[in-house]
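Table S2 (text version). Query chain:
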Amino acid sequence: MTRLHLFDLDGTLLHGTSAPVEISRQLGREAETVALDQAISAGRIGPPEYAAQVYALWADLTEAHVTSAFEGAPWLARIREVWAEIRRAGDYCAVVSLSPSFFVERLLGWGAHAAFGSRFPSVPFTEPADPAGVLNAAAKVRIADRLCERFGVERADCVAYGDSLSDRDLFAAVPVSVAVNADSHLAGLATHSYTGRDLWDAYELVAAPGS
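Corresponding structure-token output:
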């Protein structure tokens, strides 16, 4: 059976933080973005409002800032090794995140078959952000369905990895899921749970056939 592994980014592949926080750290705007992360995690604001506010914080953002954020972020250990093993097994892996696509798509270089994030203008920004390009929890399920069609698998063949409210819809849509360092929003939804800083250990929970 060929499987599709779907990975969230913020709080999942990144330990205890999000891509926007790491980007904002480069600009000295970390505190403002942490507050926005707390607001969206609690459901006080939605993805479009969140995206508009971080876009406003990033007026001076450059590619060098994004590179520094990506390279200095607290990634879980052995992400590339897990994705290499998934490929070796003949399976597929993708990242689907609400964070900006210009950050998420860098993970293609680590071995992901696909990477989707919210559409932001190219860096440095010379045009406004389009709210229609911002992803939400339901969009993760739609993207998963498109990826199933692309790779010739079904929802029944999917494994989702996530940590928070934005992953609830996807966890409800697929049969196997791993809550990675998760908050209370995923309580009772995941089929497996992992706390730690090594993606290989989370992957091993579902690596065996029939898991």
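Notes on Table S2: The CA atoms of residues 181 and 195 lie 5 Å apart. The two ends are 12 Å apart (CA to CA).
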